[in-house]
Design a protein that fits this description.
TIM Barrel; binds phosphoenolpyruvate; single chain; 8-stranded parallel beta barrel; alpha/beta; 8 strands
């Protein structure tokens, strides 16, 4: 598998005011070491992206948008486009299960957003993952196949180096507070899912792309369980929800990633 840096992404979701986010970052910069083997990405509320961009050193933290609209401009009241985020963020989360399930975004929206991100020099973090029901019905592979194909239709081989895939089983996602006691995949479960994802990338884009694409795990990660996920073959990093709002946990996750050999 690729020996890329570990990628740790903190998705704060709809939490923290601009002021609270700024105070959080003010403390975080003093606690997070810049490690050459770990890339740390913060994904605050859209409103806080600009002020935080002025607060951080881009060598220490990168920024990700949690969402955006796929058209570049026009009469779309209330929306923010990838072209407006261009230069401000390095990454954007696309296809998160909360967007798929609460806001009914399906393959068409997901693939349009992947395209919009790519044409605006933003790396899409494409989230995929099965629900508890789909898992119980033995549909995990089919769901991952559909979501990957749905999101990556129109993505060329040369675009693949910009794509990050996050495996986020919906049944493992916390509510933002219960990430320490929530059910999570076993290393074997995770290895199987990551293998499924990489096999499909190999099928679509070839062996090289399948080895090089960065694949993250997300779902109730915290400072105590991060190592067990990061040591699964083919996992290049973590997408962290609830625990990224807790400085102690988030710093512990980053420190855990630091020095762990990529498999
Ligand atoms: C998420 O929703 O992307 C996520 C990983 O959340 P949590 O870590 O809280 O399960």
């Amino acid at each position: 598998m690729s020996s890329t840096k570990k990628l740790i992404v903190g998705n704060w979701k709809m939490n923290l005011t601009i002021h609270e986010a700024s105070v959080y970052v003010h403390h975080l910069v003093t606690k997070v070491q810049s490690h050459r083997d770990v890339e740390v990405v913060l994904s605050p509320t859209m409103l806080a992206l600009q002020p935080i961009s002025l607060q951080i050193d881009r060598r220490q933290f990168k920024l990700a948008a949690q969402n955006f609209y796929w058209r570049d401009h026009g009469a779309f009241t209330g929306e923010v486009s990838a072209s407006q985020l261009r230069g401000l963020v390095d990454y954007a989360i696309v296809g998160h299960s909360e967007r798929r399930h609460i806001f009914h975004e399906h393959h068409k929206e997901v693939r349009s957003k992947v395209q919009a991100a790519l044409r605006n020099n933003i790396k899409p973090i494409l989230c995929v993952g099965e629900t508890a029901h789909e898992r119980m019905s033995g549909e995990m592979r089919d769901v991952l196949h559909d979501q990957i194909l749905g999101g990556l239709t129109n993505v060329t081989s040369s675009d693949m180096s910009e794509i990050v895939i996050a495996y986020e089983p919906v049944w493992a996602l916390s509510d933002g507070t219960n990430y320490s006691e929530h059910k999570v995949p076993t290393p074997d479960d995770l290895k199987k899912a990551i293998g499924t994802i990489r096999n499909q990338i190999s099928h679509l884009y070839g062996e090289k792309a399948s080895k090089e694409v960065r694949v993250l795990y997300g779902g109730s990660t915290n400072g105590s369980n991060a190592a067990s996920f990061l040591s699964v073959e083919g996992v290049n990093g973590l997408l962290v929800g609830g625990a990224s709002l807790n400085q102690h946990e988030f710093v512990k996750i980053i420190e855990t990633a630091h020095g762990m050999e990529s498999k």
